[in-house]
């Protein structure tokens, strides 16, 4: 089974080199945070800011009146419990180095070989009791917030940087206490790990005392999303979701959260059977997509069904999550995709919409159509 080679799904374009091994070096954090070329992507209470229909970001040396004084206040408390959100009012997370700009004068260079523009996400939850005060971020609060609609109209590079920052900052803003002992936790490694502050050796903490690590890592929730096709790709099963688009309804692939101790393939088989009653043995992964609502990874798969009078029969009686599921002729779906101009949703029949290019479901449906066309042309 081939994958979608070379193509990035929306939110899945890796424009920054994460250099994850450098995040634990305090010298790296401090030198990158203070370099004039470093670019900050500000969020206010988890919401990014908008600049002419795109993601707002600002270089340190362009923001002497706003970001620089904030960084100066944060530098002394990096990797200490004073940097917790409730004390500082700020979460900061290193995103990576933007490379391909090595020749520009004044570029950030670390240990003579890691070059590029450092990117940080910075999220403000300030009040009168936090180290950073509301007055410190005054000019940022005048910038409009980035709407969900604008996010899906941005170019994929900006959307992917947004998604990357959003997922780390969302995690940092939600987790305040150690799951092992209830002590406060604080960010380390440039905001990519959370450390337990319990220093009392007589109080046991499964997180702090674990043999492998004493920190908490960010979470990513895996979701399987699967296109169901007949063995000859002549039919595709799509399911109706609850959302409406004017007078039209949406049909798409089915999806569900993976459960512990499940393989991707078994999660697909389970979701297919639970939601549609269809029995499908043959499952393969096609492509994946980070999805920052809030911290999902969509694992896009294809399920191929061998029709035998039983396997392909649709039943919505099991978990009753779907309003409807139907087998459609791939020929008709392919026609709808060929008429699609790439903007917004795909118009399929008068009253049905299919997901557009920003959704991994679109690529899975297109994959089935491509398989169908290849098969037709070889007959
Ligand atoms: Zn603990």
From TrEMBL:
EC number: 3.6.1.22
Cofactor or coenzyme needed: Zn(2+); Mg(2+)
Pfam families for this protein: NUDIX
GO molecular function term, any single one: metal ion binding
Superkingdom assignment: Eukaryota
Sequence similarity: Belongs to the Nudix hydrolase family. NudC subfamily.
Protein name: NAD(+) diphosphatase
């Amino acid at each position: 089974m081939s994958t979608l080679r070379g193509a990035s799904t929306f939110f899945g374009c890796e424009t920054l080199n994460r250099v994850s091994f450098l995040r634990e070096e305090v010298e790296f954090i401090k030198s990158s945070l203070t370099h004039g070329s470093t670019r900050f992507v500000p969020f206010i209470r988890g919401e990014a800011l908008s600049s002419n229909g795109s993601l707002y970001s600002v270089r340190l040396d362009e923001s002497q009146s706003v970001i620089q004084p904030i960084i100066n206040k944060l530098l002394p408390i990096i990797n200490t419990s004073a940097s917790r959100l409730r004390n500082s009012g700020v979460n900061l997370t290193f995103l990576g180095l933007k490379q391909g700009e090595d020749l520009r004068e004044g570029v950030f260079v670390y240990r003579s070989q890691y070059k590029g523009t450092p990117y940080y996400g910075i999220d403000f939850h300030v009040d009168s009791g936090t180290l950073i005060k509301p007055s410190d971020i005054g000019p940022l609060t005048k910038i409009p917030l980035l709407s969900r609609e604008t996010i899906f109209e941005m170019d994929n590079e900006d959307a992917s940087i947004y998604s990357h920052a959003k997922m780390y900052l969302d995690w940092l803003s939600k987790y305040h206490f150690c799951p092992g002992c209830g002590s406060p936790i604080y960010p380390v490694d440039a905001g990519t790990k959370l450390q337990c502050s319990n220093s009392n050796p007589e109080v046991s903490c499964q997180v702090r005392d674990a043999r492998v690590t004493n920190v908490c890592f960010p979470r990513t929730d895996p979701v399987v999303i699967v296109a169901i096709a007949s063995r000859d790709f002549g039919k595709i099963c799509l399911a109706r979701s609850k959302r409406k688009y004017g007078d039209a309804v949406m049909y798409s692939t089915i999806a569900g959260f993976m459960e512990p101790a499940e393989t991707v393939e078994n999660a697909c088989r389970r979701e297919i059977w639970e939601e549609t009653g269809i029995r499908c043995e043959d499952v393969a992964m096609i492509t994946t997509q980070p999805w920052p609502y809030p911290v999902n990874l969509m694992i896009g798969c294809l399920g191929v069904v061998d029709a035998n009078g039983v396997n392909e029969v649709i039943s919505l009686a099991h978990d009753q999550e779907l309003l409807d599921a139907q087998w459609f002729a791939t020929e008709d779906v392919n026609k709808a995709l060929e008429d699609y101009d790439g903007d917004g949703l795909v118009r399929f029949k008068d009253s049905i919409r299919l997901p557009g290019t920003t959704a991994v479901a679109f690529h899975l449906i297109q994959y089935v159509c491509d398989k169908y066309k290849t098969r037709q042309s070889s007959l």
